[in-house]
């Protein structure tokens, strides 16, 4: 039975080539856009090397101090993180804690050429939360941090820029007026991964001034690695408790009395970053629903288009439907048949969409539009694509099929329009 | 004629309803992209207020701590003043100044004041006396800041025409006091008006702008974050390294980043236009899809109506009359879709949902989208209607 449907479907597609082309074009372009979007989301949010444990990592990326007339909001400072967040690492659910700075643009001049790098200052634990792929050498350690050694880990692109791709181990680079010895080279970390990406990483203790140790608001982030995803809620509430403790030691209690911050998963951090205005309370669930709604809205136009075309195609086959009805096929059987036909069409379109998406993604990767991007169609994205295609196929097939099954056999046999 | 055609459209309401819906959504898509594009174009055509050519920006990080005292602030200012002096002495540099916020900076400083019960927002900046010369600001009234302004019993303020107009309409702003201040602080008084200043660049909307004077002798709460310098045209890029060495030599504890404003401008343009380009590309493919779809549906519909149109021909209607009928029917369908879309989008300016876009820009976007829909429909209907008008009456009547 199903095989018969398939055969008919392919025959029908081959008969009206122009219509088939229009349908396939619409489906593949729609899925292309959805797949590329899905790939970017996957790239930014799913666990990928080196952030293979991002699903059980929490980050503290923002801190707000408030008083009656004053509000100050910035990345947290090292002093705050070190004194009030680090103690959380004693919790049984916490595996590691690290402090790392936001990336800063740092300039070097090499042989008359200017090189701009994103520089992060990190402690030794940072490298034990990440699973970075080292092409040369190894990460710097907590001893390097406590000994304020001028050592650096650089990424592949930086090695190419400074040393034309020759081994960089043990060589010296000068950045922002300081000289570092290269101890490790890692594969490029995509710039969208905002808690880890940089061109070079050096110990925090090499910072030019000692101020950072006292700051509450500065340019550092805290990363907490949980033993298990189930530990995250408990860690979040412990973090809030440590904020209450910190509030009693605020540096300028006349101006500021309360602290607001949160330990966020990657998705929550993105939502907070893109929420306009006050970001004390965010709604990740609503944002997910909104994204889904946007996807539906985007699919609306192509779906309408496909419904229109399907209706026209079906009118063409009125006499076929008449014959089938006259021989006793039920409306439900007919709806089933046409939905299957439409699914065949959508899946063909999806296949074309996948191929197109692969091309567009590799073009995006090499364009440098998203620095260090390695967008790819992995099995997750492929799975999203398949779901979208099925959804799309059913959505655009049901209405025309229903209209068609309503045809009166006598009229249909005469070839009258719907 | 129109009534008759409306009846014909109504008779095929289900098929046509879907087409109207499709045109409605396409209209919305075109409207969104067109409005954003026109918004940028409209902003681009407004005066900018300064020259970014041959101006370099040095971003300075002075490593200021939260607990620094007055003495440290004074020491920093001394280093800053020395830096400025050394930069001005360099051969390719024509003039230099210090500012809190540089043109094309991402962040900024916004303050507000209440006038007659309504809150007026303004972008602000603290700048040294050389700023006007470096960026070529055009004064329309009063004067610019002078080095010795710190001796005054009040704080001099320079505003742009937008702010002057918002605050006092056509009255003379010179000498006016801007805000009610704490009595312990000096009052602020307007000393000059510049034609325009749009910190965020050509693509951003016009905003109110206010300058305060940053002295290089007396510490204030201003934190100098940029040094701006005008260089001679055709200064080689190699000068950048020389400048960097000089700065690092004078202040080894600070961090510096040098960038021609032209580069900063390019990256601002890029980041603002990227969504437009991405949205435009997606919209283009959506429209292409819709156009092909409409074309196919119209073609199929006309095949269905062969007998009807054949009858008209047999009854004496000319070719062009049939042609016109088909096109006109399509125009009616499009009008429904566009009307529906216009009713929806007109709510945006009425309800003031997106405050920063002017109603004129919305109107232009609406007109553009409507025109695009009519052109698209006409293109899609043209070939099928030509085919229909070519039908031979006898053949058409025999068609089964």
Task: Provide an overview of this structure.
The complex is a heterodimer of chains A (about 425) and B (about 400). In chain A, helix 9 (about 285-315) crosses helix 12. In chain A, about 50% of the residues lie in helices and about 20% in strands. In chain A, strands 5, 6, 7, 8, 9, 10 and 11 form a seven-stranded mixed sheet that branches. The model of chain A has no long low-confidence stretch (mean pLDDT about 90). Chain A is built from 13 helices and 14 strands. Chain B is an alpha+beta fold and about 400 residues long. Helices cover about 55% and strands about 15% of the residues of chain B. Chain B has helices at about 1-10, 15-45, 70-90, 130-135, 160-170, 240-250, 260-305, 305-315, 320-345, 345-350, 360-390, 395-400, and strands at about 55-60, 95-100, 110-115, 120-125, 140, 155-160, 190-195, 210-215, 225-230, 255-260. In chain B, strand 3 and strand 4 (about 120-125) form a beta hairpin. In chain B, helix 1 (about 1-10) packs across helix 9 (about 320-345) and helix 2 (about 15-45) packs across helix 11. The model of chain B has no long low-confidence stretch (mean pLDDT about 85). At the A-B interface, helix 2, strand 5 and helix 9 of A face helix 2, helix 6, strand 10 and helix 7 of B.
């Amino acid at each position: 039975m199903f095989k018969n449907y398939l055969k008919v479907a392919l025959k029908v597609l081959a008969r009206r080539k122009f219509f088939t082309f229009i349908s396939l074009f619409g489906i593949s372009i729609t899925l292309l856009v959805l797949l590329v979007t899905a790939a970017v989301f996957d790239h930014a949010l799913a666990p990928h090397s080196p952030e293979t444990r991002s699903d059980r990592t929490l980050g503290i990326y923002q801190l707000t101090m408030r008083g009656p007339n004053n509000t100050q909001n910035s990345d947290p400072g090292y002093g705050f993180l070190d004194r009030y967040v680090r103690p959380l690492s004693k919790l049984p659910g916490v595996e590691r804690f690290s402090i790392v700075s936001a990336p800063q643009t740092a300039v070097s001049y090499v042989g008359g050429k200017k090189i701009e790098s994103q520089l992060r200052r990190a402690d030794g634990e940072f490298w034990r939360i990440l699973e970075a792929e080292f092409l040369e050498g190894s990460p710097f350690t907590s001893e390097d941090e406590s000994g304020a050694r001028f050592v650096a880990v650089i990424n592949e692109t930086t090695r190419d820029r400074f040393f034309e791709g020759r081994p960089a181990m043990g060589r010296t680079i000068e950045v922002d007026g300081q000289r570092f010895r290269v101890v490790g080279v890692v594969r490029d970390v995509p710039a969208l991964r905002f808690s880890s990406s940089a061109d070079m990483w050096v110990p925090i203790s090499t910072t030019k001034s000692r101020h950072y140790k006292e700051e509450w608001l500065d340019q550092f982030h805290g990363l907490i690695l949980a033993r298990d995803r189930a530990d995250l809620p408990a860690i979040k509430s412990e973090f809030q408790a440590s904020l209450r403790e910190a509030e009693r030691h605020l540096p300028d209690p006349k101006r500021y009395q309360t602290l607001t911050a949160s330990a966020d998963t990657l998705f929550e951090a993105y939502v907070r970053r893109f929420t306009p205005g006050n970001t004390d309370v965010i709604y990740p669930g609503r944002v997910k629903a909104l994204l889904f709604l946007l996807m539906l809205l985007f699919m609306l136009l192509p779906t309408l288009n496909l419904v229109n075309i399907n209706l026209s195609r079906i009118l063409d086959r009125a006499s076929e439907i008449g014959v089938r009805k006259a021989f006793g096929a039920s409306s439900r059987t007919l709806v089933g048949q046409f939905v299957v036909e439409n699914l065949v069409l959508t899946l063909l379109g999806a296949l074309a969409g996948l191929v197109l998406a692969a091309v567009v993604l590799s073009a995006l990767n090499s364009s440098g539009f998203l620095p260090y991007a390695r967008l790819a169609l992995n099995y997750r994205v492929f799975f999203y694509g398949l779901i979208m295609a099925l959804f799309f196929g059913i959505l655009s097939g049901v209405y025309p099929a229903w209209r068609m099954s309503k045809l009166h056999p006598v009229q249909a046999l005469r070839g009258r329009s719907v | 004629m129109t009534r008759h055609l409306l009846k014909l459209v109504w008779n095929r309401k289900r098929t046509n309803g879907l087409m109207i819906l499709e045109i409605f959504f396409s209209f919305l898509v075109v409207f969104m992209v067109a409005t954003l594009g026109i918004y940028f174009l409209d902003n681009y055509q407004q005066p900018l207020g300064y020259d970014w050519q041959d101006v370099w920006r040095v971003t300075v990080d002075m490593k200021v701590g939260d607990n620094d005292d007055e003495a440290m602030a004074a020491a920093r200012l001394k280093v800053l003043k020395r830096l400025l002096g050394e930069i001005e002495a360099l051969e390719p540099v024509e003039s230099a100044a210090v500012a809190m916020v540089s043109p094309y900076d991402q962040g900024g400083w916004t303050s507000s004041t209440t006038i007659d019960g309504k809150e007026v927002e303004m972008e602000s900046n603290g700048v040294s006396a050389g700023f006007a010369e470096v960026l070529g600001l055009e004064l329309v009234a009063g004067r610019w800041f002078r080095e010795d302004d710190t001796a005054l019993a009040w704080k001099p303020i320079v505003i742009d025409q937008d702010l002057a107009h918002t605050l006092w309409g056509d009255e003379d702003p010179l000498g006016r006091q801007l805000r009610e201040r704490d009595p312990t602080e000096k009052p602020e008084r307007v000393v000059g008006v510049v034609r325009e200043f749009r910190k965020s660049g050509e693509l951003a909307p016009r905003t109110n702008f206010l300058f305060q004077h940053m002295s290089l002798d007396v510490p204030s709460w201003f934190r100098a974050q940029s040094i701006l310098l005008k260089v001679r045209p055709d200064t080689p890029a190699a000068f950048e390294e020389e400048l960097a060495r000089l700065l690092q030599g004078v202040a080894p504890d600070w961090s510096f980043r040098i960038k021609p404003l032209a580069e900063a401008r390019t990256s601002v343009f890029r980041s603002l236009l990227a969504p437009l380009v991405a949205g435009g590309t997606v919209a283009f493919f959506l429209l292409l899809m819709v156009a092909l779809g409409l074309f196919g549906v119209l073609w199929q519909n006309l095949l269905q109506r062969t007998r009807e149109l054949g009858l008209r021909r047999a009854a004496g209607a000319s070719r062009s009359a049939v042609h016109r009928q088909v096109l006109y029917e399509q125009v009616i369908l499009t009008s429904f879709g566009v009307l529906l879309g216009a009713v929806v989008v007109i709510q945006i300016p009425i309800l003031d949902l997106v405050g920063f876009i002017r109603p004129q820009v919305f109107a232009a976007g609406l007109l553009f989208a409507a025109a695009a829909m009519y052109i698209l429909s006409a293109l899609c209907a043209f070939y099928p209607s030509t085919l229909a008008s070519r039908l031979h009456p006898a053949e058409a009547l025999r068609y089964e």
